[in-house]
Every structure is written in structure tokens, then in C-alpha cells.
Amino acid sequence: MSHPPDAPTVQRVDAEQHYEILVDGTRAGLTAYRDRGPQRVFYHTEVDDAFAGQRLGSRLVEQALTDVRESGKRIVPVCPYVAKFLEKHEEFADITDPVTPEIRQWLGTELG
Q1: Is position 26 within any domain?
Q2: Is residue 2 part of a domain?
Q3: Within a domain: residue 4?
Q4: Taking a C-beta distance cutoff of 8 angstroms, is the pair 77, 43 a contact?
Q5: Looking at the domain assignment, is residue 35 inside a domain?
């Protein structure tokens, strides 16, 4: 008899500066960030095609943003997926900073 799959889990991987979502131990997606003082600047989110349609992206981002709140940091949504998520989830508005040209320039330098 087969066992049901484990619920997807989200973990922060500081060494790689991203959060990842795991399904049965396999990385199904990630949302990448860089820290800029008290801000966590999210710039890229992806979910592997093999895991599409399972709402993993929104679960990943929601748990990542919850972690940002618990860490005492602020969110800067350069990533279009994170920005769109925040439009629908006003519970994070109090810790969200606008994306400015200065932040975009800083991020470009950070990412090389």
C-alpha cells in the first residue's frame, strides 16, 4: 500500500539567498531575494513545470513573506509574481516598501 505524499514544505536557504518549496523532498520551486539593510528584495520566483497547477507558487510566496515578517524585515517586490501576490494579500501591506529606481539599480549591481 502506498503512503500519501507529504505536504509541500517551504524552507529558507540563507546560503543561496532563496526560499524553496519541496514536494516529497524534491525542490519544486524557489523565490530568490537579496537583503538590503532591513529590506528583503524579492527578484525572481519560479516553479518547475513538472509541478505546475498545484498552487505551489502562492504557497511558497505566502510562507516566504510570513518569514520576512517574523524576521522583522520589510518586503520589496521587484519580482512580478511577488508583486501580483501582494495585490491580492493586503495583510502584508504594512511591511511592503515600493520598488524604486534606486532599489532596481542596487539590485542590478548585486546580481552583476
Answers
A1: yes
A2: no
A3: no
A4: no
A5: yes
Task: Report the pLDDT value the prediction gives residue 98, as an integer from 0 to 100.
Answer: 98
* Residue 38 contacts residue 74 (beta carbons within 8 Å): yes
Ranges of residues in the chain whose predicted pLDDT is under 70: 1-5
* Domain that residue 19 falls in: 9-111
3-class state of residue 55 by DSSP = coil
Tally of domains within the chain: 1
CATH number at residue 42: 3.40.630.30
The tally of CA atoms less than 13 A away on the side-chain side of residue 66 is 8
Residue 30, classified by CB atoms within 10 Å of its CB into exposed (0-12), middle (13-18) or buried (19+), is: buried
End-to-end CA distance of the chain: 50
The side-by-side arrangement of strands in the sheet containing 74-77 is 9-13, 18-23, 26-36, 39-47, 74-77
- Phi and psi, residue 15, nearest 5°: -60, -30
- Residue 47 has what pLDDT? 97
